[in-house]
Amino acid sequence: MTDIDLLETVQRSLISGSLAGCTVDLLLYPIDTVKTRLQQKANFHRRFLFSSLYFGVGSAMIGSGPSSAIFFLSYNLIKQTANSSSSSQVSMIAAAFGETCACFVRVPTEVIKQRAQVNRNLRLSTIVRSCLRDEGLSGLYRGYFATLAREIPFSMIQYPLWEFFKEYQSIKQAYPVSPWQGALCGSIAGGIAASITTPLDVAKT
């Protein structure tokens, strides 16, 4: 990999990763809020299930861009270093490494976000101060390894499938997939990965 290739990979990964992460999290945040509240059913009153669905979105946006950028940067660098764009094994290793790096940013914002989703009357600043006061900095990383246990299997399933679907479609139509086809492949791969790893998400939450 030349210095120019490396620079292009870094720039593309940081920009596209940040934009993609923020867009996806913003669009799906209400669904994530309902999911989190349902998983907290023992402590959450059902009549508030669909209220303030975007409460805590600020925390998600702060962490979403950087964590997604870190993931895609790590993922693409591993794949380019291995000089293999289609190997399932390389994609799995790259995804696992990317998630391990990204979770250093993602976990603190996830902790704040989930507490905001089930404590809709508290400000984000209040939640952060309370966490730091009662639990220290380690409180923001509560569930880090549980998050890795959820995210790594998810990504190790999703990204090899995504690469496989894109390659299959490219061969089938004899030209590279378009952006919308790539997005569709990603959606299908993500749906399959989510259906398999949902129990891990429930346990983590």
From TrEMBL:
Q: Where are the transmembrane segments?
A: 52-78
Which Gene Ontology cellular component terms are annotated?
membrane
What keyword terms does UniProt attach to this protein? Membrane, Repeat, Transmembrane, Transmembrane helix, Transport
The record, for Pfam families, names:
Mito_carr
Where does it live in the cell? Membrane
Note the segments forming the Solcar repeats.
8-81, 86-168
Name the domain of life this protein comes from.
Eukaryota
The main location is membrane
What membrane topology is given?
Multi-pass membrane protein
Positions in coiled-coil regions = none
What family is it from? Belongs to the mitochondrial carrier (TC 2.A.29) family.
Q: What is this protein called?
A: S-adenosylmethionine transporter
Tell me what organism the protein belongs to: Rotaria socialis
